[in-house]
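User: quick one - fold this with iron/sulfur cluster bound?
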Amino acid sequence: MKRVEGTVLFTQESRFMLETDAGERHLFILSHKASAEAQQLPPLQHRQARVRVTYDNDPAIIGYAAHAIDVLPEQRRGQGARQWARQ
Amino acid sequence: MGAAMIAGLPLSNRVRDYPESEFRHPLPHEAELTAGVRIEPGRSYGFFTDTTVCIGCKACEVACKEWNNLPADNLGLTGDSYDNTGHLSANTWRHVAFIEQMADRPTEMRPFQSNWLMMSDVCKHCHNPPCMEACPTGALFKTEFDTVVVQQDICNGCGYCVPACPFGVVDLNPLDGKAHKCTLCYDRLKGGLEPACAKSCPTDSIQFGEVADLQQRAAKRLEHLHAVGVPSAYLYGAPDGPGATGGLKYLNAFFLLTDRPEVYNLPEAPTRPSDRVAPSLLSGLAAVAGLAVAAVALFSRRD
Amino acid sequence: MNFIPLPSPSAARPVSDAYDGTTYYGRPALKPAPFENSVVGSYIFLAGLCGVAQVIATVADVARAPRREGLVRRGRLLSMLAPTLGSVLLVYDLHTPKRFYNMLRIARPTSPMSIGTWILMGFSIFSGATAAAQVAADWVRPGWARLLHGIARTTQVPAAVAGAGLGTYTASLLSSTSTPLWAAAPKSLAVQFGSSSMASGAAALAMAERHAGSRSLARKLDTLALAALAVELGASVVSEATYRTRGISAAEDAAADTRTIAQIGTIAPFALQMLAGKGKRSAGILSDLASLAILAGSFCLRTGVMEAGDESARRPQDYFRFAKPGNLPK
Ligand code: SF4
Ligand code: SF4
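Assistant: Sure. Structure tokens for the protein plus iron/sulfur cluster:
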């Protein structure tokens, strides 16, 4: 399973749009196996929270299946972008 | 809301309050400006989809995907006219059907749609919704806008709503294990906004409004079409008409069609599945009861 | 200029009882149920078997059948398969199993799935109490045992009523959908399911009686099973005729193999039991074979109906033929 970090831009039902530190946007669907529930997503959107998503490809859609969402500490916000800038 | 004819269009007087064309803030009761209707809880809202003016641009499909953050599915080409969307699904809540009717000679072609029938299909938000009547968890419910919505925090993915729908609309997403379908933009309605598909429709083939209003508008449009020589036009989903038979009563999202319903992949006379609950249960119980009586007779025989 | 006369609204409606075969690129107009047929089919089979096992045990007890103790005990214990294994199968088939308890949020009389949930709940409680009293009575001193038997004799009545529901509601679960093959013949399908439940319960208990050496009860149960099969055969003829007149029987070919087993399971037992009545030596084996055939047939009836229904939902022409004004309930 793959991992990606980024900001939750917006959510709808069990779907959310993540903007990675590189500025790419990807659509994720929260898998039914994930411990997180869809109703926990809107607060992440309101905070524009930085999260780490553990995910898998899904060949049937242009999007990914999110299996776990870890909220990253707030102070790390922007750090990713800085790292990106340094590279 | 004061409706007035402004530049030939029946628009709200409020349009004069907003001369700019770009806004940095949400407008209160925006639907008044875009659809001429103020959205208030406790009233019935729906769609009137007039297929005679549909140009098959799929703006509605795109707007729906954008607003609802739905992923592209049905990847690939179908080979069936310009319809690569295929069907409504858990991730596709508007579907534009393309029917090519090119057999006629050009002189016999209809004066609209150039013998292409195009129709933007959607959840009908039935007045007596079979999906909701089937849902054992209460996840499917009628909102304060008289629309039918799946509550995602309740649905447990039993899938019973799927075969219940007489129009093949609601669908399970195996990925998140929940049922999904058009919500008639429940979140937008709460914010006073017209649903995304209707707002984006460039020809007003999809009209949003109060159901009673829409039904009147549709009746007028029908009269007009009949008068100008389209006798085949009829309403699908109007009270007790085709599409609203068998106790469905009427569909909040109804259509103006010009060919048989089957041409658009719609059933002419759908039924209300819950009407079959009692007859079925009673017949089954009668059979078991009858056999139980036979068992009593057998068991009480001495040997 | 010539004006076309305004057609009356009803004339503008496409009222036609004949369906001309039009489809939209042959695409399905319905979505088949997303059930896993082997799982839900197994549940329907178990629900029928267990529900009826409770009915038979109760009837035998109430009718004071001679030498009924073994039959009553086995019927009560067999019925426990539905609350246990059956519930597991149901939860397994959910697409979000961890939310199974949401089924208990509401009771909805328009939804056989909700009705069934509550029937299963009631059945589990009363059958569970009956079975528990039975098991306990087998272990304690006679004085206590009489009290426990009294308890079981009371709780078995609501358990049997719920059991009858459990054996039949599954037909209305299928019929109360828009799937043409399930919706076309709700009454006769329910009779098929109900009598097939009765046949399977009687067959299973007959087999157990035979092996426990209680010949006369086994013979009575065999007779009951055959009577149930006869009812099922009659109802299936009605269903088939309905499918044919509605023009939707072609979908049944999708489940041809399963249907064949189901048909063998309803017809072969008659022949086997007749032979068993003649031959003295192999009578037991033949009767057991008949019971097994009934059980297999009962299982395949359910999975076969489910498969064929799914196929009918995928066939737009079947649905359109079915969804015609002529077929509307009067
Ligand atoms: S069209 Fe289907 S999904 Fe939509 S409200 Fe009616 S039954 Fe439910
Ligand atoms: S899948 Fe969800 S919405 Fe559909 S019937 Fe089951 S619980 Fe209700």
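One thing worth noting: The mean pLDDT of chain B is 91.
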